[in-house]
């Protein structure tokens, strides 16, 4: 399917990219054509339970008629995002006592055996970043200041490629990411905790929502905030 262009909305004096309106969010925009163009029939991803890429991959593979296999640490109950990925068609492999590094080892081993395409954490590849930068450049704006959350840092690096003259800020939510030339802030919540201050629109509580408090306090009027997913 062809996804609609990103919606831009002014919220509290800031310009927000509302990709929470797209099932699977921003990364689905890039994954869907890449998955469709690949000769692989199955795509494997090792995901944190809270991660949004698992949802994006599930929707992208469903649209392309291919299989998404998500490896994730076993929990007493599925995290809502893992459940959403499953509902969108992903096959789940729950890894007992699974730190992310162990989950990644299991995913790599499975891909070697089955011949599936293994996707890197955060979809951190030059091809993915270039495609995401192209989506940003197609927007009818040229922002002077841009805010994102940085898990892997893929989003902010792609936007830096799209808008080389802008000033960038990225809010760290876990391990130190490769945030390019962005000024890096650190969310006070632990990675698994939900944001204590949330924006007035749907936003991933472990990810994007954690940037809102920083944008409100430090962002310049008119700054752009990229909301990846709901």
Could you explain how this protein is built, in words?
The chain has helices spanning 25-37, 53-64, 80-87, 100-114, 126-137, 154-162, 212-218; strands spanning 8-11, 14-18, 42-47, 67-73, 91-95, 117-118, 145-150, 167-172, 183-186, 224-227. By secondary structure, it is α/β, with parallel strands linked by helices. It has a six-stranded mixed sheet, covered by helices on one side. It has a four-stranded parallel sheet with strand order 5-4-3-6, with helices on both faces. A hairpin with a 2-residue loop joins strand 1 (8-11) and strand 2 (14-18). Helix 1 packs across helix 5 (126-137). The model has no long low-confidence stretch (mean pLDDT 93).
List the helices and strands and how they pair.
Elements: E1 8-11, E2 14-18, H1 25-37, E3 42-47, H2 53-64, E4 67-73, H3 80-87, E5 91-95, H4 100-114, E6 117-118, H5 126-137, E7 145-150, H6 154-162, E8 167-172, E9 183-186, H7 212-218, E10 224-227
Parallel strand pairs: 2-10, 3-4, 3-6, 4-5, 7-8, 7-10, 8-9
Antiparallel strand pairs: 1-2
Helix pairs in contact: 1-2, 1-5, 2-3, 5-6
């Amino acid at each position: 399917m062809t996804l609609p262009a990103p919606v831009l909305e002014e919220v509290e004096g800031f310009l927000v990219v509302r990709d929470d309106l797209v099932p699977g969010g921003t990364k689905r925009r890039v994954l869907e054509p890449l998955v469709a163009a690949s000769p692989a029939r199955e795509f494997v991803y090792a995901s944190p339970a809270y991660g949004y890429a698992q949802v994006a991959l599930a929707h992208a593979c469903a649209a392309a008629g291919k299989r998404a296999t998500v490896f994730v640490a076993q929990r007493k109950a599925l995290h809502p995002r893992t459940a959403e990925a499953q509902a969108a068609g992903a096959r789940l492999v729950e890894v007992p006592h699974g730190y992310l590094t162990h989950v990644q080892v299991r995913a790599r081993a499975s891909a070697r055996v089955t011949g599936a395409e293994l996707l890197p954490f955060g979809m951190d590849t030059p091809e993915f970043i270039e495609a995401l930068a192209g989506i940003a450049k197609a927007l009818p704006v040229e922002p002077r200041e841009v805010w994102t959350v940085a898990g892997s840092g893929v989003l902010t690096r792609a936007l830096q490629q799209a808008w080389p003259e802008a000033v960038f800020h990225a809010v760290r939510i876990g391990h130190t990411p490769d945030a390019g030339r962005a000024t890096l802030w650190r969310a006070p919540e632990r990675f698994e905790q939900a944001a204590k201050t949330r924006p007035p629109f749907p936003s991933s509580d472990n990810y994007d929502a954690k940037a809102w408090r920083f944008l409100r306090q430090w962002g310049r009027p008119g700054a752009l905030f990229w909301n990846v997913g709901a």
